[in-house]
Amino acid sequence: MDTRLLKQFLTLSETLHFGKASDLCHLSPSALSRSIKQLEETLGVSLFHRDNRHVELTAEGRIFQDYARDTLSQWDSLRNTLLSEAQELQGEISVYCSVTASYSFLYDLLRQFRSHHPKIEIKLHTGDPAAAVSQVLKGEEDLAIAARPDNLPPGLAFRSIGLSPLVFIAPVDDPVINPLLDANPDQADWSQVPMILSERGLARERLDAWFRQKAIKPNIYAQVSGNEAIVSMVSLGLGVGVVPKIVLDNSPLANRVKMLEVTPRLAAYDVGVCVLDRKLRSPLIQAFWSQIQT
Q1: Given a cut of 90, is residue 85 above it in pLDDT?
Q2: Domain range for residue 6?
Q3: C-alpha–C-alpha distance, residues 116 and 114, integer Å
Q4: SS in 3 state form for the chain?
Q5: 241-278 pLDDT, tens per residue?
Q6: Does 278 lie in the same domain as 142?
Q7: What is the CATH number of the domain that holds 127?
Q8: Per-residue pLDDT averaged across 150-166, rounded?
Q9: Distance, CA of 181 to CA of 169 (rounded, Å)
């Protein structure tokens, strides 16, 4: 079964750039363009809007994107079921995580997995940890390392691999920020303290609840994506932030910030791997899932 056209289509649908997609597919841009045209002629619809500057999926393209993902997943599942007796699992799975998670958790996960299944390819994508669960729910990634949501969405399986406290951090010896915190941060006027906050995600939800509990409107200096960016901005003296402690432990800027003893403490992150229940039917994903040590 030749699945190359589907893979080429998916690569272009994810990158939305003919140059990047053709490099990833090891094709020339003109060859990739012919492949997409062949698909469109077969289907009788346009899959992409494209001009000299932009490429974007049409409504029909988004429908076909779901079909292509499901078809390739089912094909891999069937092929590996047939090969399972020989223990020769082959194919690829995609994993999403933050930069910090990639070297804090992923190395140990992949080291054991690769030794048992060397023919399974891993596609690793890194980004904002707040997007990890949604990437899996939307079907854009097979698995993700994420903080467990307070309410686990239906159809999502989660396996814990560690805990990380959520901590308040402030710059070390900053002449502007430090006086606002006094000797005891619990006695500070937090409505005056500039905050560097995540744009979204579990940490933002818990911090918003913390401010509501104290009946304080936060003084938001900046909203950013990615915990590493929060550490950077706090180290520059731009405000106070909240990050998982594991991010701080692995940051090259750790000596430029300090943790604050603030009450009530925010609930710790339950860090783990998540996957759609239905995808666990895939022998590849089940092989990865089964070797996770809680």
Answers
A1: no
A2: 1-88
A3: 5
A4: CCCHHHHHHHHHHHHCCHHHHHHHHCCCHHHHHHHHHHHHHHHCCCCEEECCCCEEECHHHHHHHHHHHHHHHHHHHHHHHHHHHHCCCCEEEEEEECHHHHHHHHHHHHHHHHHHCCCEEEEEEECCHHHHHHHHHCCCCCEEEEECCCCCCCCEEEEEEEEECEEEEEECCCCCHHHHHCCCHHHCCCCCCEEEEECCCHHHHHHHHHHHHCCCCCEEEEEECCHHHHHHHHHCCCCEEEEEHHHHHCCCCHHHEEEECCCCCCCCEEEEEEEEHHHHHCHHHHHHHHCCCC
A5: 999 999 999 899 999 999 999 989 999 999 999 999 98
A6: yes
A7: 3.40.190.10
A8: 92
A9: 11
Model confidence at 50: pLDDT above 70:
yes
Specify the number of domains making up the chain: 3
Q: Are 83 and 90 in contact (CB under 8 A)?
A: yes
pLDDT in tens, 96-133: 998 888 888 888 888 888 888 888 889 999 988 888 99
What is the pLDDT confidence band of residue 86, given thresholds at 50, 70 and 90?
A: low
* pLDDT for residue 73: 81
Residues 156 and 286 in one domain: yes
What angle (nearest 5°) sits at the alpha carbon of residue 145, between those of residues 141 and 150?
105
Residues 48 and 95 in one domain: no
Residues 108 and 193 in one domain: no
